[in-house]
Design goal:
The protein has about 220 residues and is α/β, with parallel strands linked by helices. The chain has 2 domains: about 5-35 and about 90-215, Rossmann fold (3-Layer(aba) Sandwich); about 35-85, no CATH class. It is built from 8 helices and 8 strands; from the N terminus they run αβαββααβαβαβαββα. The strands form 2 sheets. It has a 6-stranded parallel beta sheet with strand order 5-4-1-6-7-8, sandwiched between helices. The chain has a two-stranded antiparallel ribbon with strand order 2-3. Helix 4 runs parallel beside helix 8 and helix 6 (about 140-150) packs across helix 7 (about 165-170). The structure holds magnesium ion. InterPro entries: HAD-like_sf. This is HAD family hydrolase.
Length: about 220
């Protein structure tokens, strides 16, 4: 798999940094998603009921009880991200932990969402005081993390709530330190045990020291 060309363009705009690299997912790692999204859905006449770790197939129209069509789910998600500043709060403990790590490491945010939402998310993060570079990707994250590392062998850590993103990182950057953090740990019951090489962390309090140690800072 190759890198998303727009993500590559965004990476090339970053200033060169040789320090250890921490790459962070945004939704449910830095900003709450799975708690505010159902509240947004309720306002729109829908409810979210998990029977597996997916959105598609688990969103139902309140009045008719029928599952929302794939396209409708995508539209609801897009509308939520357009309005994210009103809904998405900081994940508990994230801001302080990342601020401490960023004194000795490069921190880059890598969010899997349509590029057209990048500006809205950028503004929201700035308002929350999170001024770290933000990249969007519509393709796998692994190639982007490999490119972010650059030519050096600097240590890399990556935090995400989606196992497939961690596996993509593992494929392209085999020595990356991978952390599975979920803003809502109750959803772990829908996931298989983490694959080998991926460290489960309970929350940012648990994660921060482990990330610093992995990065050697
Ligand atoms: Mg996420």
């Amino acid at each position: 798999m190759t890198i998303d060309p727009e993500t590559l363009r965004q990476i090339e705009e970053l200033s060169h940094d040789d320090r250890p690299l921490l790459v962070l997912d945004v939704d449910d790692v830095l900003l709450d998603f799975i708690r505010p999204f159902p509240r947004y859905l309720q306002q729109e006449g829908y409810r979210l009921e998990f029977s597996n770790f997916r959105l598609h197939g688990n969103i139902f129209h309140v009045e008719t009880g029928s599952a929302a069509e794939r396209e409708r789910v995508s539209d609801l998600l897009a509308a939520f991200f357009d309005a994210q500043a009103a809904w998405q709060t900081l994940t508990e403990g994230a801001a302080d932990a990342i601020e401490t790590i960023s004194r000795d490491a490069e921190v880059v945010l890598l969010t899997a969402m349509p590029h057209r939402h990048r500006d809205i998310r950028r503004r929201h993060l700035d308002e929350l005081g999170l001024c770290y570079p933000l990249l969007t990707t519509e393709m796998a994250k692994g190639p982007a993390i490999l490119r972010l590392r650059g030519e050096t062998e600097r240590p890399v850590a990556f935090v995400d709530d989606m196992p497939h993103n961690l596996l993509s990182a593992q494929e392209f950057v085999p020595d990356a330190h991978l952390f599975h953090l979920m803003a809502d740990n109750s959803l772990r019951k829908f996931l298989p045990p983490p694959p080998e090489g991926i460290v489960t962390v309970e929350d940012w309090r648990d994660a921060s020291g482990r990330i610093a140690a992995a990065l050697g800072i």
